[in-house]
Amino acid sequence: MSTGKVILGVLAGVATGAAIALLFAPDKGTETRRKISQKGKDLTDELKEKIEDVIDHITKKCECKDKVVEEVNE
Fold this sequence. Notes:
This protein has helices spanning 3-23, 29-73.
């Protein structure tokens, strides 16, 4: 199983757990909706950061590969 799938699974589980916890909380409907919205924004920000990290990692690997190919061709 790839790291990306594990991260996505964990984030999905956290989001589901947070949504269920908020739905069963004894707050007013408007407060619960606000909390759900905020959690969604927080999770989206975390996911964006993870995706950027993965893209940076892949980019660095590609740059290393390009350098090796150039050295071999010389």
